[in-house]
Amino acid sequence: xxxxxxxxxxxxxxxxxxxxxxxxxxxxxxxxxxxxxxxxxxxxxxxxxxxxxxxxxxxxxxxxxxxxxxxxxxxxxxxxxxxxxxxxxxxxxxxxxxxxxxxxxxxxxxxxxxxxxxxxxxxxxxxxxxxxxxxxxxxxxxxxxxxxxxxxxxxxxxxxxxxxxxxxxxxxxxxxxxxxxxxxxxxxxxxxxxxxxxxxxxxxxxxxxxxxxxxxxxxxxxxxxxxxxxxxxxxxxxxxxxxxxxxxxxxxxx
Length: 254
Ligand SMILES: C[S@@+](CC[C@H](N)C(=O)[O-])C[C@H]1O[C@@H](n2cnc3c(N)ncnc32)[C@H](O)[C@@H]1O
Description:
The protein is of the alpha/beta class. It has a single domain (9-253), classed as Vaccinia Virus protein VP39 (Rossmann fold). Helices cover 45% and strands 17% of the residues. It contains 9 helices and 7 strands, in the order H-H-E-H-E-H-E-E-H-E-H-H-H-H-E-E. It has a 7-stranded mixed beta sheet with strand order 3-2-1-4-5-7-6, sandwiched between helices. Helix 5 (130-143) crosses helix 9.
């Protein structure tokens, strides 16, 4: 059996990024589309919340592209939070990493003393049920001042009335994954095994398993659901800023 290499947080993030790029074909252009909106819409010293930040992928890119911005990153996976703290610690007080469970009613309480111009999320909110999503969107609408934006990048599956688009998207996903894994990218499970094998991380992996064991990813909600839920939650303007097959960036302006 090969020994697991000991990797610093930045290398774990790089392996995570390769793994995620196997599941999200145009992940970097998707981040770019989100950042272009921030660039066009906000002043350079904006503050953002990264919702379900994982190991800090989105926050890291945002802090690099916008050197005057600051980001609060939240997640509920203790192992990913540990990697995020290691990566985002490089940005000093421009970055903070907090634990929050988005399915709890009080998930936003630790953010009470912070003001945000933007909330960002990537490849994450499909973990929430439609009921939890509506609740999170409603809380976000309360949290954000008029003019602030929410940008959510995620796969939003086509429904049964879009059979062709649905099967094209599934076939495309399959091809991208096969090519990425053949080229050496970790699978989701491989990456977690690698991370759990890092010094001091095994107990965090056990705790992660305990927290998420009874929370399988949800059936993906279609775009229409997200747009209606965001309007219902109190956002003034909703729409899409980027799409590739069933992968979208949704914008909601407060
Ligand atoms: C596929 S990862 C995406 C991470 C990162 N945003 C990215 O794009 O690389 C999904 C993230 O959602 C987080 N997540 C799932 N359910 C959550 C919950 N109830 N509260 C907070 N975070 C959650 C997971 O811990 C994980 O970090």
